[in-house]
Structures are given as structure tokens and as C-alpha cells.
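Before drawing any conclusions, I needed to go through one protein's amino acid sequence and its C-alpha cells, quoted below without any editing.
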Amino acid sequence: MNKKYFMSIAIAAALTIGSFPAVGTPANATSVNELKKKQDEVSSKKDEINGEIDKKKSEINENISEQQEIKAKIAEFDAKIKDTENKIAEKAKEIDETNAEINELKKEIKALEEKIKERNELLKERARAIQEKGGSANYLDVLLGADSFSDFINRVTAVNTIVSADKKIMDEQKRDQEELEKKKKEVEDKLAQLENDKASLETLKKDLNSEKAQKAELFKKLEKQQAALEVEKADLEKESNELAKMEQQIGGEIQAEQARLAELARQRELEKKRQAEAEAAKRAAAQSTSSGGESTETAPSTPVSSGTWTRPASGSITTEYGWDTLNGKARYHYGIDVASRGSVPIVAAADGYVIKSQYSSSYGNVVYITHSINGKTFTTVYAHMASSSVSSGQPVDKGQQIGYMGNTGYSFGQHLHFELHAGSWNASKSNSVNPRQYINF
């Protein structure tokens, strides 16, 4: 960037250094055309640099926008990590509670195992007793040994009670064993699920921290990139400011050159007045000593209107000064259009100096002339000419041919677009006046 900056400054400097002599040195003066060309080159370079500045601004805005998005993402990751940590803490708490539940269950299991053990011992005793006494035959002996029917009923009831008690013990034994197995499986499954959930959350937290770290690294890179873009933008703005100064300097030189030409026109006007006065005095002296014969002075070879101004071209007036309509749209016409067919000469409307003789996309072949009329500066413009026969800095006399009527630039048929400005010409045409105020068309 710095290399490009200094190269552009060097190029712009080459356009200006040694190109602008002091006002009042006609032999070495740079023409307004050349100055304008250099100004356009500097302006074009400045526009290019300003385009680069706008591009850098856009890149900086995009960078800032991306940074904001990443900040939002990092904040989102922080929230997710916090939420995951809370869930991990909850799972850890549940695991602790489940472990406590398992410990309690272990106590219950131990008590249940003692109960089952006692029942097993009881059942074993029952089995041994049945085996020693002959099993079910002993129950028959008990029943047959009854002394009466009521005694038999009592014995049957007693036997049934003993059998039912044994069956109850067996059922309770089976139920307690099944319940034991069920509780063991439930808490083991619950603990395994909690451990698995906790492991998943730990993995999620690890992934979130990894993504957050990547976003943070990208954010750092964007901050460095933004800093570099800001430096580049500052360099471009510095370059643009230098070019603007050069453009302004050249503009001052253009104004100075126009002022120099206007001063030359004023001095030329004064010189012509002195010459005219001297010639008038000479003619008066000659007439006073003559025999009274008529003057032998001949008319000029080129027809020129009397007075200070003359019509710049012959032809019909097609557009007057002021508001009119062009291609269906209202516009303000800052001059008078004179149209004619054939090869039509264009002449200077008054004595003066050529400021510029150039080609533009709008005016086509155009000549600007500065005039000094009774010490006041005027500027005339002759546009859309087929060709120009004068150059910048050249003195011209009223009625002197400066080119031919044409159809160049933004034009719709052969004509002369003629403007008259009371003062210097400017792009806003604020000094334009109706040429009919000074010239008889």
C-alpha cells in the first residue's frame, strides 16, 4: 500500500512540478487546455482512490458485521456451555442421589436377604421334620387318631393351617426374591443411564468449548484484518487529500491563466483604443490640411458589425436563451443556437484571447474566448463546431474566423451553440446572460 501511495503521489507531482509558470509570462505560460488536462488526470486519479476508499469502507463494515455475528455466536456458545454445565451438575446430583438410593437399597437387600435366610432355615427345618416323621403320612396319622368327629375337624383345621403356613412362606420367599431382583435391575439401569447422560453432556461441553475457541480465533483474525484495513483506508485518504490539494492547485493555476488572458485582453483593448484615438487624431489633422476632398478609407474585407460585438455566425435562430423543451423534457438553455447549411464560418464575437480550444463529449469542438469590454471581463463559448482554427492563448480580433459550424458532441444537426457570460465561465453557468443584450441577432 505504501509503495502504491508514493508512486501515485510521484505521478501526480510529475503532472504539476515545472508545469505552472507565473502569470504574466505569455511565452512560457501553460495553456488552459493543458492545465485542464492535468487537472482531469489528477481528478480521475482522485476518483479512483476515492473508489478504493469506498471499497475499504465496505470491507471494514463487512468485517465489523462478521465480528458482531461471531460475538453473538460466542455468547450463544457461552449460554449453551453454561446450560450444559448446569445439566451436568443436575446429572451429578441425580447420580449422587441414585448412589444414596442404592446404598439404602443395599440395606434393604441385606435385611431381605436375612429374612430369606431365616425362611430358608425354617423351610429346611420343616422339610427335615416331614422327612423324619414320614412326610404326608404323619398328617394322615394325625387325622385318623381323632377321638371324635369334632376332634377330627379340629385336626383337619390344624393340618390345613400348617400347610397354608408353609405355602405362605414359600410364596413370600418367591415374591421377596423377585422384588430383590427387580430393585437391583431398576437402580442399576438408572445409574447406567445417568452415567451415560453425564458422559454425553461432558462430550457436548467439550465440543462447545472447541467451537467457541475456533470462533474466538477467527474473531482475533478479523480484528487484525480490520486494523490492516483501517491503515490501508487511512493511507488512501491521505493520498486522496494530496490529490485534492493538487487538483485545487491546478484549479488555481487555471484561474490564474484565465485571469492572465483576461488582463492581456484588457491591455489589448486599451492599446486598440489608443491606436484608434491616434488614428482619429491623425485623420482629423489630415482633414484639416486637405483641400476638402472625401476620405479614401475602404471598408474591411470581412463584413463585421459596427460596435464592440458582432454576430458569431450567419443563419437562422433555432433556439433562444432561457427555458425550452428538449426531447420532451424541460431544460434551461444557456445560449442561442444559430443553424445553417453548408460551410459556415464561425467568427469571434469580440476582441479577446482564446482560453481553451478543445473537444468535449457535450460541446464537441468548442472554443472559449475571454474579452475585456470597457475594463469588464466577458467570456464567449462557441460549441458543436466542425473544426477549430485557433489555439489556447492566441489573441483574436472581432470578426476573425475561429472555425466552421458543425454537428459535434451532443448535437442534433449542424448549428452553433453560442453562450455569453458576464465574467468567467463556470460549470454551473451562473454568469451566463442572454447574448441579445449585447449582440444584434
In short: The chain has a mean pLDDT of 80. DSSP finds four helices and twelve strands in the chain. Residues 313 and 346 are 5 Å apart (CA to CA). The first helix runs from residue 2 to 16.
